[in-house]
Amino acid sequence: MRAVNFLLLVLVVASALAVVMLVAEDRRLTQELAVARDGIERLEGTYAELQLEEGTLTAQGRIERIATEELGMLPPAEDQITVVFR
């Protein structure tokens, strides 16, 4: 009878240690997940800012203004246009 009680005690202690280790691992993984999610949120914010900036920089009016004012470009004359068909 004592051997059975001792075996049960060992099994209970081993089970308790396993629970403690698993809880610690769960906390560590939860912290890693929170850090990863924060990183994702920062990257999504940066991506949104970059998309807005890209839209501003590629606006047709801005490109036309830079072409005419800063680069001195003009639209081509009619005799300079060639239409190519496939």
From TrEMBL:
Keywords noted in UniProt: Cell cycle, Cell division, Cell inner membrane, Cell membrane, Coiled coil, Membrane, Transmembrane, Transmembrane helix
Family under the similarity heading: Belongs to the FtsL family.
Hydrolase in keyword set: no
Pfam families membership: FtsL
Subunit structure, interactors included: Part of a complex composed of FtsB, FtsL and FtsQ.
Chain's role: Essential cell division protein. May link together the upstream cell division proteins, which are predominantly cytoplasmic, with the downstream cell division proteins, which are predominantly periplasmic.
Protein name: Cell division protein FtsL
Species lineage: Bacteria, Pseudomonadati, Pseudomonadota, Gammaproteobacteria, Chromatiales
Subcellular localization(s) per the UniProt record: Cell inner membrane; Cell membrane
Annotated source species: Guyparkeria halophila
Topology in membrane: Single-pass type II membrane protein
Domain of life: Bacteria
Regions that span the bilayer: none
Coiled coil stretches, renumbered: 33-60
Family annotation (NCBIfam families): ftsL_broad (TIGR02209)
A GO BP entry: FtsZ-dependent cytokinesis
InterPro entries named among the record's database cross-references: Cell_div_FtsL
GO cellular component: cell division site; plasma membrane
